[in-house]
Write a structure and sequence with these properties.
The complex is a heterodimer of chains A (208) and B (255). With 208 residues, chain A is mostly helical. Chain A has two domains: 11-89, no CATH class; 95-206, no CATH class. In chain A, 59% of the residues lie in helices and 0% in strands. In chain A, helix 1 (11-19) packs parallel to helix 3 (41-56), helix 2 packs antiparallel against helix 3 and helix 8 packs across helix 9 (149-156). The longest helix of chain A has 25 residues, at 65-89. Chain A is elongated and about 80 Å long. Chain B is an all-alpha fold and 255 residues long. Chain B has helices at residues 17-21, 41-52, 55-66, 74-86, 90-111, 117-136, 141-145, 147-167, 192-201, 207-218, 223-230, 234-254. The chains are: A mainly alpha (208), B mainly alpha (255). Chains A and B meet through helix 1, helix 2, helix 3, helix 4 and helix 5 of A and helix 5, helix 6, helix 8, helix 9 and helix 10 of B.
């Protein structure tokens, strides 16, 4: 199974092979393994001894649904914690991908944060001048993505993202970052929401 | 020498009506090959069906799995988790891993049955977390090749760790000097009666006696081979075997 034709298998691969057997190899079967991999004789015998010990254990096993539920809930709680920790430490490099990874679709994310698709696109491509982005928006994005605020700030400080077609064109466009307040003017939001955003102070950590 | 693991009582196959109702695969999807070998044909077939489903149907199928319906093999679920992780789709990863955990827990509980009952849940959780870690570092090929074998290997690791923590404390130091040959020792390896006694009363034996006993009666190694394995004399092996069989026989008599 794990043996590669052009090299000698590692101990890990040999033990993995043994684990795929229906039962621990004994007698002549075990000797065949040892003869084939004499360099791992000690480890093979140790492994098979433990395997045999486990298999010989005769206590009956009864599994209840409650027990399974408990294990699933505890495991998933820990998995979620691991995923959150991993996410907290990894840099944010693709806002749209991160939105999906956080379990949102774009519409639900927009609703949660209080922006429209044009603003989201501008934010994702970093067309918004960082020093003009409100702290509240940074904070809401970080919360929605379960990210540190610093990770979101770092994302908006990266260079603008221009699509591949623009790079290939003979006269590539030279977009410039716009103030958040200008983009709010074009957003498909009601006037009350626009006013709320315009009243928000920019994030001082981004130079606002 | 290898063969698919097919004797685990909890290794179930996707026989649910929903899975059965799926149309046969029309063409093979380009599944990434595994570093550890080829997937079983039935797993490949499952995955072809999986990749032909819409995302909505995939989510529906995974939710059904989390509710206890067995639609997919463990290996297929490992593949789905790995795909979700590679795509950065944490929502799908979470759903698929929950489905896998629910499907795999009965098998893993069986594989860690030698642990005291209150600890089995912890051990199953530990195996699943090791699998999750393997998925996140792209080292889950073996689990996708044979989940039962993956569980068995991790179970052996936990078993060793458990022995090291709790059982070594009770080991007795056996004198290893040469002595008289042990005439009373039963000569036949694989002695079914002794193994039956062992399965009932293994906990009565200290670890060093247990190991020698198993290697002689279960694995069929001779005393010289066992002596070489432990760095002791064949005579010392004989003494340990005699002591172990006496203890087990006595245990059998008192029952």
């Amino acid at each position: 199974m794990t043996a590669k034709p052009n090299r000698r298998p590692t101990l890990d691969e040999v033990l993995a092979d043994i684990a795929t057997l229906p039962a621990a190899p004994v007698g002549s079967d075990l000797r065949e393994w040892i003869n084939r991999y004499p360099q791992f004789k000690t480890e093979i015998i140790d492994f098979v001894t433990d395997l045999a010990d486990m298999e010989t254990f005769a206590a009956p096993v009864t599994t209840t649904n409650d027990e399974v539920d408990l294990i699933v809930n505890r495991t998933m709680s820990r998995v979620q914690q691991i995923m959150d920790e991993e996410k907290q430490t990894s840099p944010l490099t693709d806002l749209l991908m991160d939105i999906k990874a956080a379990g949102h679709d774009l519409d639900s994310f927009q609703r949660q944060v209080g922006i429209d698709r044009s603003l989201l696109t501008c934010l994702a491509n970093r067309f918004v001048r960082p020093s003009t982005i409100p702290y509240l928006l940074i904070s809401l994005i970080a919360t929605a993505l379960n990210r540190r605020i610093e990770a979101v700030r770092e994302y908006f400080l990266l260079p603008m993202q221009i699509n591949a077609a623009a790079y290939k064109s003979k006269k590539p466009p030279r977009p410039q970052q716009q103030d958040f307040s200008v983009l709010i003017g074009y957003a498909d939001l009601d006037e009350i929401k626009k006013s709320e955003w315009l009243s928000q102070p920019p994030d001082p950590e981004l130079g606002g | 020498m290898t063969q698919a693991d097919n004797n685990d009582p909890y290794e179930t196959k996707p026989t649910d009506s929903l899975a059965a109702s799926l149309q046969p695969a029309q063409k093979m999807t380009n599944l990434p090959p595994l570093a550890t070998g080829r997937r079983r044909p039935e797993v490949e077939e499952e995955l072809v069906k999986w990749h032909q489903m819409s995302e909505t149907d995939q989510d529906t199928a995974l939710r059904a799995e989390t509710e206890g319906h067995r639609l997919w093999s463990h290996e297929a679920l490992v593949h789905i988790c790995r795909q979700a992780y590679k795509a950065g789709d944490n929502k799908r990863l979470n759903l698929a891993f929950e489905a896998l955990t629910r499907a795999a827990t009965p098998l893993l509980l069986f594989q860690v049955r030698y642990f005291p009952q209150p600890e089995r849940g912890d051990q199953v959780q530990e195996i699943m977390l090791r699998l999750f870690k393997a998925i996140t570092v792209e080292k889950a090929d073996f689990a996708e090749f044979s989940f039962a074998a993956f569980g068995k290997r991790r179970a052996v690791e936990l078993f060793r760790s458990y022995k090291a923590r709790f059982e070594a404390v009770h080991d007795r130091i056996e004198p290893d000097q040469d002595g008289d040959p042990v005439d009373e020792l039963p000569g036949t390896a694989h002695d079914a009666e002794m193994l039956a006694l062992y399965s009932i009363a293994r906990e009565k034996l200290p670890a060093n006696l247990r190991t020698v006993f198993l290697q002689y009666y279960k694995l069929g190694l001779n005393m010289d081979e066992i002596a070489a394995q432990h760095g002791i004399t064949a005579s010392a092996v004989g003494k340990r075997l005699k002591k172990a069989t006496d203890m087990l026989s006595h245990s059998g008599d008192t029952k």
